[in-house]
Amino acid sequence: MAVSLLANEVSDLCIGKPAVRSLPLSAAAGELAAALRRVARSGAAACVAVTGPARAVVGRVGLADVLCFLCTDPEALARPAAALAKPVSALLLPKDGAGEVRRVDPRSSILEALDAVLSGAQVLAVPLRAGGRRKQLAGGGGAAGDFCWLTQEDLVRYFLNSIGLFYHVAARSVSSLGLVRTEFLSVRPGEAALSAVPLIRRAIATETAVAVVTEDGHLVGEISPALLAACDETAAAAIATLSVADLMAYVDYFGSPPEHILRAIKAGLKDKGLDAMLELIEDETLSSFSSLSSASSSSDEETGRAQLRRPSSGSYGRRSAEEPVVCSPASSLVAVMVQALAHRVSYVWVLDEDDDCRLAGIVTFADVLRVFREQLL
Questions:
Q1: How far is CA 296 from the centre of its chain?
Q2: Domains of the chain and CATH, by start
Q3: What are phi and psi of 100, to 5 degrees?
Q4: Is 345 left (phi over 0), alpha (psi -120 to 50) or beta?
């Protein structure tokens, strides 16, 4: 089984993948935010590679990283323009030992890629060959220095395509396989969203999310890098002033948030003396209103409606209007894999039906991949 499954190279999983968009360490954080908006509108993965000397990949950043950067430092909230003028390198802070980007050779085996992920790599950077046997990569070979991402999702999908070889574990429940982690990131709906920033940073590094859980243990929502990726840098004002529950509402309706949410943000910014951030919000609101007005005057009704849509969150995950993806402890391994891949998330929340559907834990792609690695020993 292992021989036939692992005969492929890493490059086989990268066929058709586009070259990753990248920025140098010296680029400004504001330039990164603008690049992320362009990536999100294109429907691609809402993250950008950061490269150092000789285009060596030193990190991967998304809009959630920018927001955490702005919200971690009080000075950044007070002077957002100055903060966004700082180099991207300021965003590359340690992520609790996780979140590593690791380069792998296109000729590496699937097993080597799997071991790299299970040893702490969040994502793998695979150079695109300019020619040779894998010339079809990225639609005909990449330029020197081009590379693509190989993610946990790619590996899970690869094993799902060969799930028949793992029939003895595929139908077993995630509970019996020991995949339900009872320790997970969580906050209460009434807590200040700003207090969740350290948890959001950990969620970025672990490819998970922060569960929003009531006092009696029920899951009411989540804050994830995928949802934040559909916003822009002005969402830092919402994180700085709103409760967790109101932040979820803000993200759900980003681009046209409820009036009471906007009033709460502006009042909070005034109370904290964050005048520069308030000015940024008001400028953005005026700009959005002007864009919407121009669109509504068009004879193309679809163009007008498009202004109200949030940017695509790409491969990071689903649109925020959807509920968190959940399963039960009795759900089979293959069912959870299919469910997560269908929603483009790398985790599934576990609700205990025998305990009034309270949140019991989380199943992550990293743990799912560990099951397959054990089967290949």
A1: 32
A2: 11-128+146-151 (3.10.580.10)
A3: -70, 140
A4: beta
- Where do runs of H (alpha helix) occur along 43-105? 63-72, 74-78, 80-84
Question: Whole-angstrom Cα distance, residue 176 to residue 38?
Answer: 43
Q: In Å, how far are 60, 102, 181, 191 from 371, measured between CA atoms?
A: 27, 22, 14, 36
Distance between CA 87 and CA 71 in Å, rounded?
16
Round to whole Å and give the CA distance between 129 and 10.
12
Please report where in the chains the tokens 């954080």 appear, as a residue. Answer: 29
- Burial call 106-139: b when 16+ CB within 10 Å, e when fewer: bebebeebbebbbeebbbbbbbbbeeeebeebbe
Please tell me the pTM assigned to this model. 0.84
* Closest to 365 measured CA to CA, from 167, 164, 97, 153: 153
Q: What are the tokens at 304?
A: 């007008």
Is-contact 208 184, C-beta < 8 A?
yes
Q: What are phi and psi of 149, to 5 degrees?
A: -90, 140
User: Does position 313 have pLDDT exceeding 50, yes or no?
Assistant: no
Asked whether the beta carbons of 345 and 325 are under 8 A apart, the reply is yes
Collapse the DSSP code of 341 into the 3-class scheme (helix H, G, I; strand E, B; otherwise coil) and give the result: helix
Give yes or no for a contact between 209 and 347, defined as CB atoms under 8 angstroms apart: yes
Model confidence pLDDT, tens digit, residues 71-130: 998 899 999 999 999 999 888 865 444 568 899 999 999 999 999 999 989 899 999 865
AA letter at 256: S
Report CA dihedral (78, 80, 84, 85) to the nearest 10 degrees.
-70
- Return d(Cα 348, Cα 164) in angstroms, integer: 22
Q: Which pLDDT tens digit goes with each residue over 158-188?
A: 999 999 989 899 999 999 999 999 999 999 9
Tally Cβ neighbours within 10 Å of residue 45.
Answer: 23
